[in-house]
Every structure is written in structure tokens, then in C-alpha cells.
Write the C-alpha cells for this entry.
Amino acid sequence: MTAVQAPGGAELDQVRHIRTEIPGPRSRELADRRGGALPAGLVSSAQVYVRAAGGGVVEDVDGNRFIDFGSGIAVTTVGNAAPRVVARVSEQVQAYTHTCFLATPYEPYIAVAEELNALTPGQHEKRTALFNTGSEAVENAVKYARAFTGRPAVVTFDHAFHGRTLMTMTMTAKNRPYKQSFGPFAPEVYRAPLPYPYRWPSGTADAADEAFAQLELLVDSQIGSDAVACLIVEPILGEGGFIVPPPGFLRRVAEFCRERAIVFVADEVQTGIGRTGNWFASEHEKLVPDLVVTAKGLAGGMPLGAVTGRADIMDAAPPGGIGGTYSGNPVACAAALAVFDTIRADELLERARAIGTRMITELSEIASSCAALGEVRGRGAMIAVELVAPGTKTPDAAAVAELSRYCQSHGLLTLTAGTFGNVLRFLPPLTISDDLLAEGLGILRDGFAAL
Ligand SMILES: *Cc1c(COP(=O)(O)O)cnc(C)c1O
């Protein structure tokens, strides 16, 4: 068989190019095959099937090329098939693909741990354990916190997303589609109000104080603070719709936890590894979490998750209590090491900030003349728009669906989000060119005009 390999990664022509109807004939063929082979509940946001991706574009099997404002849900931050990732992964697969770190250990695992220990906020003694996914890492953060404190309860927030395993699904706020028909849920998970500035009932100015008072009530009067192992929060909520808590709120929560010996966990699975213009979104709020959870952007598309944090907490789990057959797979570790190198060498933190400034400026301009665009928010290359019925704050999920369809058919891939399904979020790879970024924003501008 002689397969002609289409160019991929950074080699891919960095231009948008729509040459068939969307989806094209080959994508429709795959959709048919999929219908006969996959369960109905597995859905994809795009109707096109990928052939190659890199830089700021995704090419489908019909030869259409899309601008990528999704990065595979905040994963390919350094670009798809990024050159350094490809090189290191190729080298690694030729040396060995797997030995199981629990059986025969290897150096790349330790190197990733050293990097994360150094990069996460705080100068204290830290340790890192590796896993396969964000959900698995969050689950294990809870295990470490429980082992360390000897306490059962876990406090989470409204609008939170922490994963799809039993424990992390329980910790996730939104019923449909994440929890509906999958209960009963794990015990000892409690939920505090999240100060969602745009939607706080008594107004943005009071959101932080009122939410904090309710957190105090929940922890001190209802659960009992000596029963709480950990509190976990996304510094900017991801699936919840890129909600940015009011400045200072999370610091106050962290201090509250410290006073009660509650382990403060930052779920940086979506925000971490350069996405928001710092290595970690916690840094914008000067937070020093006890534990930081990462995954998504960590390994440039290879599956890898991590828990990094205080050595005394991480050392509390008993020998052999934590691990997994594939956890910290050497190929995924090699990819992560290439991601760290790429972010440093290509100054991608600065790039994330520049992308954010550009997006916020242009989207705010659109908002000033479009009553359906309720709010523009986010940080760095993690920006969203919330759509409402004009003149109200009534969520308009149908408008988001229409806008995202418009974008896809005009060659721009986006993702939806939000508790009410009325948020369109943008997570471009940091390797996207200024031209493609401008072109993508132009499609959005036209899409809003067409609403
Ligand atoms: C995606 C996500 C998870 C779950 O990660 P998976 O790799 O899908 O298991 C957990 N927390 C946050 C904040 C996420 O965005």
C-alpha cells in the first residue's frame, strides 16, 4: 500500500479554503459509517472529519481547510502536530513505548514532574504524580486530599466541570448532558455558589461578598470545616462558559481554606500550560494552590494529566495507593517535555496575551453594535461571548447554535459552552498567525451580523 501522506503540522498551508459544501462527500460517507459503528450518544460539534492539522488550521477529508478556534478543546496549545512534539514523540516511540512506571520506571516521567514542580505557583517543596486524563487527575487530587486530611467532604462550585468519571461527574455542576441518567452519584460532594459577575442576582458589585458568605455558611455551619478534605475550583471556569470570578474572590477562598486546613485545589486542566498568558491562570490572581491539576494542554495532544502540589500532601498517600497501568506513559511524557520547550522557545505566553488583547478588542467592538452579544470575557487565548435575547439577559442557546453553524460553513471551527448552552468559546492554538486570527474574527463579525 502506498499511502500519499498529506502535509500536516506546521507544514500545512496556513490559509482558509472551502472547496465543497460543508460537510463534503467524504465527511458524509464517514458519518454514515459512524452511524453503524458508534453509539448515538457520542456526538461531535463539527460535521467534518479531519485529515491533517497544524499551525492555525484543520484540513478535512474533502480538502477543506478551517481556521482552528478550538485546539481540540484547549489541548493543542502549541499547535497540532507541533514540530518539537512530533520529533520527541518519534524518538520516544522508537526507544520504548511503554514499560509501566509502576513496573520499570523511566526518566521522562521524572523530568515532567521536575518541570511542573518548578513551573506551578509557589516556592514550597512540591511533588508531581502523572495520570492519563484530566478526570483521572482530579479524582486523584481528591484521593491525596482525603489521605492527607483524613476528612471525607469535597467542596465544588456552581457551573463547575471536573470530568466524566463517577467522582468527577458528581463534582460537575451541569445535569444535561453530563449527569442525566448516570446516577446515583458519589457521596460527600457539596456545591457552593460561584460569583458569576454577569448573572449574579443582586448585581456584579455584590457577587463576591455574597458568594463568600454562602461558602462560609456551607462549610462552617452545614458540612463542618473539620469534615472538609478539599475545595476545588477552576480559576476561570471552562465548560461553565469561561466565567472569570471577581478579582480577589479566589484569594479570599484560598485564605479561608488555609485557616481551616482544607486542601485548596486549582483545576487548571483547561486554563493551565500557557493558555491564559501565564503558565497557570492561578498566577493572575496570585494564588498559590496546595494542589494544581493539569491535563489538556500539557502534552500537545498526547493523553497526560498531572497532580502537582505540596510534598506533605502528596506524600500522605500510602505506598502503591496511587497509579495506573498507563499513567505517565513515556510517549506522553516526551510530548510534554517538548511542549515546555516550545512555550519557552517560541515565547508563547506573550503570544497568548497578544491573542487575548486582539480578541477582546474586536469582540467588544462587535458587542457595542450587537444587542445579542451580552458579554465578552476571558483571558489570553481563552475568550468567550455570551449570547442573550436582545435587551435582556435571557440566555439564547439557539443563537449560539446558529452562529457556530455559520462559522463552520464559512471555515471557522469554534466550540460552545455554558450552563445554559449560550456561550461560544474560542481557544485558538498559540501558533495561529495574525492573518488567520483576523480572518476568524471577521467571520464572527459577519456571523453576528447575519443572526
Ligand atoms: C476537560 C476538563 C476536565 C476533564 O478532563 P478529561 O481529560 O476530559 O478527563 C477536568 N477539568 C476541567 C477544568 C476540564 O476542562
